[in-house]
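Bumping with the actual sequence this time:
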Amino acid sequence: MLFRSKTLLQTLRKKMRSASKDMEYEMAAAYRDQIEAFKAVTQNQVVIIGGAASFDVIGIYCDEGEVAIHVLLVRSGKLLGRNQFVVAMPVQTLEEAVTEFLLQYYEGQEPPKEVVMPFLVQEQDDLRSLLKSTYDIEVKFTIPKRGLRSALLTMATKNAKYALFEALKTKIVYDSALELIKKRLGLNRLPERMECIDRKSTRLNS
């Protein structure tokens, strides 16, 4: 875990320097905040909360029809890991997208007894009933106002925001490359699939 933490910090610092070099100061500041938040939580990572509390923290950030979700896993008072997802929501509301995510996320893994979120979804009672019938666990969804849970939620939300920045940045580069291919090949629309042919193998087969 320590090695993974050091590797992640090195990656974040590299991205921060790169963004600053490219004069993307907002992005550089975002990486700086993420580094500080990550260090604050992992500094005393062995035990981050008294007792044996176990809960998930769901950070959510939405922009340009995409939603990023960052999950922090706290088990027996320890921050054990994190999961990150970026999904499109072309026709859904944010609440519907989050509800669908929760259904899929906990479909294959046992939930803790508490899930910390920035807001509650309308279908939470149905979701709790489903989790109860599947895992025989009473799950409560909470919105923290202060304390460690609130700090972790802030961190998870920031991580979701940075993940979405990265995804949208990659999408812009990808779409620009497709636009260039379309222009060079005189296509009427963006290519949806590209196939590569080994010319050497073609000559041998013929």
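The tokens above came from a reply further down the thread. The radius of gyration is 21 Å.
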